[in-house]
Amino acid sequence: MSLASNLDRAVVDGFGDEWSRFDQLALASHEHQTLFDTYFAIFPWASLPAGAVGADFGCGSGRWARLVAPRVGKLHCVDASAAALDVARRALASVHNVQFHQASIGALPLEDESLDFGYSLGVLHHLPDPQAGLDACVRTLKVGAPFLVYLYYAFDNRPRWFRAVWRASDVLRRGISRLPYGPRYLLSQIIAVAVYWPLARTARLLERLGVAVSTLPLSAYRDRSLYSMRTDALDRFGTRLEKRFTRDEIARMMARAGLADVRFHAGGAFWCAVGRKTKQGPGEDQRSVFQLSTADDE
Questions:
Q1: What is the pTM (predicted TM-score) of this model?
Q2: Which parts of the chain sit beneath pLDDT 50?
Q3: 257 sits in which H/E element
Q4: Beta-bridge mates of residue 76
């Protein structure tokens, strides 16, 4: 498989439809900021140079770019979907330090070692070859530049019963995600209202009663809006290609891509990690890079 073909066209089209329908502009500002703070909790903003130039790899609706762009000198927003980029352009119409690129992560229109930072949130696990996608992103970074990634987790920090529930839901996802868009959308919204919302609100009630709810399915949505649940249900059940990784697998992936000093932040249904590009390129001196990737969680 060539780097340029490291995408699934049906998945790209599906996300174009998703962001056209859920452009995230209806998301309350406080919820938007809370989600952003969760994903970027370990990002080293203070270490970026003045006028830093970076990239949002798989920018989608531009929801994260809206909060990143004011902090930096220039931000490249890259997405393979023309429909998603149209949404991002509208969302960022008043922002003047953003440049948009319709391109796959396997065919990036950015020079190697040209960026001061980069991030890819919820994207690489939808590629046929996530490692090749990560390698491509990291090649665009200068030595020492940070890269933030979040990937679906493999429930390696969850009990067996939780993993069993996920396996059952994944059978449902595999069926729904292959339906035409109309039925796929409708079923995802039924799941959001009939499953996400009641479980999330039950978790919120139990938490207020003093019950620990962090291990309950969908408890991460207990303070989220129905709009957010509807978006994520379509994302989750409407996407036919997803891959999941353990923490150790992600650390090794980042090491192979040439990232060191990796730190993890455990979120809800994902692993979030940040590392810095070393002088080694992808696949070079993997053992020494991995040994550097042992910083404690934050």
A1: 0.91
A2: 1, 285-296
A3: helix 247-257
A4: 55, 99
